Amino acid sequence: MIFDWLIPSLIATLLVLAAIGALRRVNFWRAGQAEKVDMWAGLLAMPKRYLHDLHHVVERDKYMSRTHVATGGGFVLAMVLVILVHLFDIQSRILAWMLLAALGMMFCGALFVFKRRLNPPSRLSKGPWMRLPKSLLTFAITFFVLTLPAAGILPESLSLSNIGLTLVSLVLALLVLLSLGEMLFGMTWGGPMKHAFAGALHLAFHRRPERFGGGRSTGLKPANLGGESHGVAKPEDFKWNQLLGFDACVQCGRCEAMCPAFAAGQPLNPKKLIQDMVVGLAGGTDEKYAGSPYPNVPVGKASGSPQEIITEGLVSADTLWSCTTCRACVEECPMMIEHVDAIVDMRRFLTLEKGDTPNKGAEVLENIIATDNPNGYAPGSRTHWAADQNLAVMKDVKKAEVLFWVSDGAFDMRSQRILRAFVKLLKAANVNVAILGDEERDSGDVARRLGDDATFQSLAKRNLATLAQYKFSTLVTTDPHAFHCLKNEYADFDQAGALKDVEVLHHTTFLNRLIEQGMLQVDRFKGGKVTYHDPCYLGRYNGEYDSPRALLSSLGIEVAEMERSGYRSRCCGGGGGAPITDIPGERRIADMRMEDVAATGAELVAVGCQQCTAMLEGVVEPRPQVRDIAEIMAEHLVEQLVEHTVEGAA
Amino acid sequence: MSQYDALFEPLNINKLTIRNRIVSTAHAEVYATDGGMTTDRYVKYYEEKAKGGCGLCICGGSSVVSIDSPQSWWSSVNLSTDRIIPHFQNLADAVHKHGGKIMIQITHMGRRSRWDGENWPNLMSPSGIREPVHRATCKTIEVEEIWRVIGDFVQAARRAKEGGLDGVELSAVHQHMIDQFWSPRVNKRTDEWGGTFEGRMKFGMEVLKAVREEVGPDFVVGMRITGDEFHPDGLNHEDMKQIAQYYDATGMVDYFGVVGSGCDTHNTLANVIPNMSYPPEPFLHLAAGIKEVVNVPVIHAQNIKDPNQAKRILEAGYVDFVGMTRAHIADPHFIAKIKMDQVDQIRQCVGANYCIDRQYQGLDVLCVQNTATSREYMGLPHIIEKTTGPIRNVVVVGGGPGGLEAARVAAERGHKVTLIEKAPELGGQISLAAKAPQRDQIAGISRWLIMEVERLGVEVRLDTAADADLIQSLNPEVCVLCTGGRPFLEQNPEWGAEEGLVVSTWDILNGSVEPGKNVLIYDTICEFSGMSAADYLASKGSLVELVTDDIKPGVGIGGTTFPTYYRSLYEKEVIMTSDMLLEKVYREDDKLVAVLENEYTGQQEERVVDQVVVENGTRPNEELYYALKANSVNKGQIDNEALFDIKPQPQLLADKLDGMLLWRLGDCVSQRNIHAAMYDALRLCKDL
User: Fold this and answer.
1) Which of A270, A570, B82, B407 has a Cα at 20 to 30 A from A551?
2) Highest taxon of the source (chain A) (predicted)?
3) Which of A385, A388, A424, A427 to mutate to test the interface with B (most CBs of B within 10 A)?
């Protein structure tokens, strides 16, 4: 071949450019705030995180998973071998053959990428992403041809005229430039392949390493109170590895497809949000964004930079307040990006610094501060619901096997029915239980999701101080939001260890144990078809999908599952303070969820959350009935009766 | 929480926490039929209220502590024997199970009873003065007897406590023995048990002290008192404040229940349980006056029927607990429905006083519109569950109370129901009854039923006269005829109904006939319709004479309702004439002559009037029934054995009906009343 120097030079140049781009990119991330990460452990763990954890998520889409294994795996292998064979010119037929094989694999994968891009679903971003399959194919073909001589398939010098050879070489060089440019230069200079570079590092330096290896990490990180500012105002206020995480986005739009707010036509699209963060961290505008917009918000008007306030030009506050914190996007993201963390971080700025919580937000926060409950009820009326329940109160008994965390449902007449049903079941099973009574305070869930971490932390600390006074081995609650706070978010403030040896359970888990132990007996359910709605804070946040279903099954109910159930359950619209901030959309999320329910033909939807109950019951009738599992259980409880013998009675 | 927070704020009486502010106050149920024991029926009646969320039930109005205070007349609870204790345990368990609390009123009725039965006792009162309402003569109680009765109170309180009840209420109201001693109207004694204020107070005080000593400091002991006897020679409001303060100062009374009015005359008795002619909470000011001077919670009932009314009273702080006794007879799930956000589904008491008027006749207390009340033990449901069997096509003809109830119950069962009504509106005779002065609230019965059938999706066809062809075209599996009746003016051809000489009370009340100037109403029925027509005509300016062949006009109307009619009729100078038969009506010039004949002497009198109105009941509209009967699977017959046993009609037990099942109920069978029609509708349709 003539121009023997050309291909290696191109490779070398592009590698250098890539390295420069990488440094530039790393500098973007370094603009973020310090966050301690065990770099080496992360890097060492990265391959496994990629192959196992990330693949586990990608695997949900079998087509894409196989395609990516072939394409990505083929590319990584091919790239290493290209460097060895074509840059360092290592003469080895084995290497050459291996390279051919890798390229073959990549080619096959790329064909499927190409095929998918022929008629791509709306969730996929277009623009440069439409070019990528062609680049991949070009890369595979070009290097395949280039490697044929090294593999001994083609002679080193072909019987072509010099002109012909020169022409072929130039064409090949051009193709190398184009395809390798996409793969290497694009990788670090903002092309679609950026995802591989940033994604790999994101996996290595992930802010929640607990998520890898089957773990779960869903509790929000505490805000640092008392500093100069609170929350994230500008992109540079994010932790550096959060910025890195944004860059990992592949714009596959799986988040968008799952986002309830997006579906409801509220101005939120998690993918666009992440892309806007990328715009922010690198500086610029969203002109080039080629995916679905925030519903009813035109693309191209947003701009930002690391030092500019995000909500003043890059992302509207309404976008941030539309989120229900349901984690459907996070659960679905193959790159394990943490959208909810980012949103709450930005909400913290709006609430704590600007006092700009929309609609009822400010009022609710004031209520929580003044009365320890979001609706401002007299704190002394917290236990009114239980006036006829004869429940032991911790203040009197000091210890009990089980502490029933009642939650703010105590103030709500509808939720009280759930509480009473649960108490009925506890009594039937002779559980040694006590409540905190008026000493209980709001868990802080709403305050935290609305960005008021100061109020959350204050509530958490005061609740923990109360809990620390009493002895109990199990804490159980019917409220998944309180459950999540107590189980996952209080630990950051529990220096005294009030919950250290305490098992925190959702009532469905607890009830299922009682059923399994034969402590509760229930009749068979006689009604019609039943479906089950997984509450976000029970399912995705805490992984409890089985106990509610086991309970329903104990009633003889065969759950008619909704298409979106389990980890893919659609939010009711009630989380994250969304009903309070109440950002207008085209539809209500709860209505859509009720349509999911109705599609199963169910007459009854079982839930395990008072908030879900409230949201779903807010859907206008006619619609299926809504019951907490505790209510269904209590209705079917087999009770023991005692009759006093009366004179003359048979 | 909700707009009704004020109702749901728990409050302690002594150490007893009452879960909300709603009380079913003491009333005589007439269910303690087994020698005064709280029967299964009694227990289930109160259990239903507790299940429905009522905070506190005070049961057993006028429950007796002594064997010489007869209980059998009103089947009130008998606390004079230990036999009651296990019965109380069942009662207490049933109520406690649902988080309710239950106490019992205990009393010696003194002269307010009848002596001519049971143990044939000499009735006793402080000064032996006769009681007019019960026509009860009595002896002057002797000191030995006083102390014995005090001892009986103590034993009764012990039995209540041992039976697991939450407290006792000493009745010092309704002219029972304690307030017979209190009232200078009845207590003329000059010994230490009368005369001075302290003397008149002594009996009640000794009872209170002895009972408190027996039950200890924590068991609830309350007192029910009047707020004003409304008798010039009786206790007025200031007297009652003094009395309440006097007893409250002992610290031994845990609450006061306050009732407006005395009740030892027919006229005052009507105040005690105000019927629909009264304004809302007419005597609240009296209870509020007592609350001003005592330090313990005050309970007040009397015409409080609506959750918003209760809330308003509680929020304003007039009293601490609102008694909603009849409200719970009409709907024991009153509280539950508020909590379920189903306030519109509460069946509201209309003050027809069918319950209490039956009680004063010694009959079991029943609700005119809720026929499941106190029949819980028979299996009649307040909450009707959907059928698990086939969904049927049900056609109901007639939109009076019977037809509306049949349609409601069938629709609650989940059937496809069509309701056909000839008139342009639903309600049947209730709509007529509501036209009379002070009777408008009776329309609440149909208002609720109409709201329910609408809610339940019943197809209502108004202005539609049903005939056999129409019914067949609808192809019903079950057809319920509730076509009612029509005024029966033809019984005596001499009345001249055919010539138009007489009109019916319906013609008057529905406005189709203009009121005459000088009107004679001839009423053989002596219930509401004749009195209502008289009241209506008089209020339009007619001169009215109400004539009956019975012993007095309105004699068929109960003790709390005829007085309010009498007040209105006497005030409007309606002449009431008894014992006269209407023999003949004829026209003379532009006048009508009504010929009346005294039943006992045969002597005839004539009245020259402008208009003669006859109330002679109704004859059934049964044409459609006979047109459909032959083609029905059951030939129109209802299996009475199954019906009375609250069992499904036998045809419903088969897998499939081989044709149309035909039932008729209400006045289209024979004239009875609202309750009878609705009871049949419920017990027939609940198993559809």
Assistant:
1) A570
2) Bacteria
3) A388
